[in-house]
Amino acid sequence: MDVVVVGAGVVGLTAAVVLRERGHRVALWARDDGTATVSGVAAAIWYPFLAEPRARVLGWARVTFRRLERLAGDPASGVRMVPVVEGFATAEPDLWWAGAAGAIERLPAAAVPAGFAAAIRTHVPVCATPIHLPWLLAQVRAAGIAVERRSLASLDEAFAAAPTVVNCTGLGARELCGDGAMVAVRGQVVVAARPPGLDAAWIDDTNERPLYAVPRGDDVVLGGSAQRGDERLAADPADTTAILAGLGARLPELRGVAVRAVKVGLRPWRPAVRLEVEPRGGGRRIVHDYGHGGSGYTLAWGCAEEVADLVGAAR
Ligand SMILES: Cc1cc2nc3c(=O)[nH]c(=O)nc-3n(C[C@H](O)[C@H](O)[C@H](O)COP(=O)(O)OP(=O)(O)OC[C@H]3O[C@@H](n4cnc5c(N)ncnc54)[C@H](O)[C@@H]3O)c2cc1C
């Protein structure tokens, strides 16, 4: 074995796929299936949010956009290109991520929805996680990667199997690496039946509370919340009420939607995504790839390519 990837969320699964594409012999170890972690809670729309630093995020987001755009050509992947409208409080919003996305149309004043100073329309990839995560895992297995359910007390345990360990443990890195910079940012979403006619995703950028609706097949993910340092995993009825009321005020078709589930996840945030090599002596090293905050789906493939660059050529 050349590499053990630890973690089976979207970050670990994509890293394993890309390392295998580059010819490495890879194993994947994880405590939980990706559907049972924050990766299973995400909306999961391509949109850089709560991830730093911007210069690196832009590069990773660009690579990920192109890969997901290609995957959207395969319906089995659960990825689709979806129109999205985003509204802003200011007339000149800072679209710092525009260089990583496709063509962006600024809506003329007459077309800007009520309550916004400006709005844009573009197309971005959306991953229907109930399809996409099992599909990613199937890609991993089809590539011949052995997947093992393991809970590690130390990343060093993986050196027994390979000299290179890729750390994709998300919030778990807080304990595994003693990383005090990690902060959980709680997010709650409501999953509802998609009302007829709701074809575009919708992002309201005017409030501190993120407000969005992301249609995916026959459901729509309604969000959200971003509560720093709040690690409650139980659904909060006050959040649900705020989400449904906020979106209902903006989008009449969402009033009275049929709620299917309320989900909570903890975004693995740190002041900067940690993607770097940590040499451990004797030819052993850890390549860290964690701390993607609110952008794991937006950055995963770009980060996976950089991980593979750092790991280097297969022997
Ligand atoms: C409400 C909400 C909405 C979101 N929406 C979006 C969105 O629209 N777009 C977007 O890009 N992102 C979104 N995100 C963020 C996204 O979900 C995360 O950035 C992403 O899922 C992080 O993935 P990960 O693989 O790093 O972590 P995880 O999914 O947490 O996976 C970590 C893996 O590491 C394993 N692990 C941890 N510790 C150990 C250990 N000690 N031993 C063995 N294995 C271990 C776990 O079992 C798991 O397999 C959202 C998040 C929330 C909460």
Notes on the protein architecture:
This protein has 315 residues and is α/β, with parallel strands linked by helices. It has six helices and 14 strands. Strands 1, 2, 3, 4, 5, 6, 7, 8, 9, 10, 11, 12, 13 and 14 form a 14-stranded mixed β-sheet that branches. Helix 1 packs parallel to helix 3, helix 1 packs parallel to helix 6 and helix 2 crosses helix 6. The mean pLDDT is 97. Flavin-adenine dinucleotide (FAD) binds next to helix 1, strand 8, strand 13, strand 14 and helix 6.
**SSE arrangement, N to C:** EHEHEEEHEEHEEEEEHEEH
> What does the main sheet amount to?
14 strands, mixed
- Helix coverage percent: 10-25%
Q: What would the principal axes of the Cα set say about the shape?
A: globular
Distance separating the two termini: 11 Å
Notable traits:
single chain; 315 residues; alpha/beta; 14-stranded mixed beta sheet; 14 strands; globular; binds flavin-adenine dinucleotide
What's the quick description here?
The chain is an alpha/beta fold. It has helices at residues 10-21, 54-71, 129-142, 173-176, 237-250, 296-311; strands spanning 3-6, 26-30, 79-88, 105-106, 118-127, 146-149, 164-167, 183-193, 201-204, 211-216, 219-223, 227-228, 259-281, 284-292.
